[in-house]
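User: Here's a chain of 221 residues. Predict its fold as tokens.
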Amino acid sequence: MSGQGPSRIAGVKEDLPPGERVLWQGAPSWGALARHAFHIREVALYFALLTAASGMASWTDARAWTACLLPAGLGALACMLLAALAWMSSRTTIYAITTGRVFMRIGIALPIAVNLPLRRIESASVALHADGCGDLPLCLEPGAHLAFLHLWPHVRPWRLKRPEPMLRSVVGAAQLAPILARALQAAHEIASASPPATAPLASVVRVASADHAARRIEAAA
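Assistant: Prediction complete.
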């Protein structure tokens, strides 16, 4: 597997370590992110019901339509903000799977880079949606110092005590799952023949570049 793919993740200045190659790279679908992470449909339905209820409560009034303006306007504003947030999140996110790690660059205002060595990932699963997108949560070894709020929305919901980073709303998740499975299998086979790692799973290092300041969560290789 080490001879496949490029040696640099697009959008990342640093090269991968010698011998490590990119197997897949992508980003969330902003539409799927809006639907499944930011729940834009549920918000739209809520305000639609609120608007209908406001209209029905004053249907005998000749100016009943004015009672619908406030909830309808608030609903439209809320949906636009959620759609914009999903679009910006998609535009600023990079997911990558290499022969040695799962890489995530996430965050809108203050990006962070998350490197997860494959041999420190206990398991991975896939959840497919009807729109063809899917989520791939990663279960890490105990000891990962990753905060749920730092990862959100790129994290499995409700796993607060032991957060599971997640490749979220990925197009073609059904085709990506075998790539990740083969990479994990190969990494664990190599790890089983090597001495056990003693370094912590993750540490935090501040970095800066000419373009922006960022925080990088470096998982120990």
